[in-house]
Amino acid sequence: MRAEDTPPIPAALNAFLLVAAMGAGALCLWTASHAEGLVVRLVAAGVFSYVNNTVFSLLHEATHGVLHPTKRLNDGLGRLAATFFPTSFTLQRAFHLTHHRNNRTEREQFDYFRPGDHRFLKRAQWYAILTGAYWAFVPVGAFVFALAPGLLRKLRGPGTRYGEQTGADAYLGRLEDAPGGTIRAEVLLMVAVQAGLAYALELTPTGWALCYAAFAVNWSSLQYADHAWSPLDVREGAWDLRVAAPVRWVFLNYHYHRAHHRHPHVPWLYLGRYVDASAPRPSFLRIWCAMWRGPRPLPEKAP
């Protein structure tokens, strides 16, 4: 529940940005599919990787109920935004709120080797995040759940080191009570929107793949750079990363991630007010470059 003194949700601005970002994304998909020069297609894919992060940031707002003050409109716009990821809004909300509950606990310390960890598995997870392969698990997982929900549940691994180390037990455990009918409807919507775009814009597989590969790398890299080697604390375990202002604007202040974890019901527009100027603020580039060296040994005093 949002506190009474929480800033108001910029509903009209959010709706405008969602329409604009989705329109820009569609234009990038069309350009990547029909432009004659390779350079133009690559530029279109690069631009798509940013504007689709605007869409994702608005999806993120919806998961916290701060995209629109009316719940029905918040969820409806969230479902629309999810089709461009593409994924199920209900699954995304369940998994993201699980992340807030487990942030920097043993279930989400992918940046450290803990005693008993399977090192190959930990490195595989780590570089899947950095290379963008992590993104593919989201739409594929939503599709698999819609068709065969029992298959994902079998991957949960409750009570095993695998289940704890990968976070599979915590995240896939959320599927036990997931509304299967709603998720299947959202996956059908996701497929319909993607198929509609492909048909209406005459998208080529190569053009679509270029755009989504660029988005996968751009999106996936930030998803852990804002947590890597931050304090092992559920609420404080994130960074307010320094990044070029235009990039931060496109990501709708997503880089102010510690402020978000401290105040998850504050809309993106006001997060800058909640940044702790006295706390360390590493640059995104420095964290991202350090990540390529792989996970580190767990500090001796860590829990």
Automatic annotation (TrEMBL):
Keywords: Membrane, Transmembrane, Transmembrane helix. The chain crosses the membrane at residues 12-32, 39-59, 126-152. Pfam families: FA_desaturase. GO terms for biological process: lipid metabolic process. InterPro entries: FA_desaturase_dom. Residues 42-277 form the Fatty acid desaturase domain. This is Fatty acid desaturase. It comes from Corallococcus sicarius.
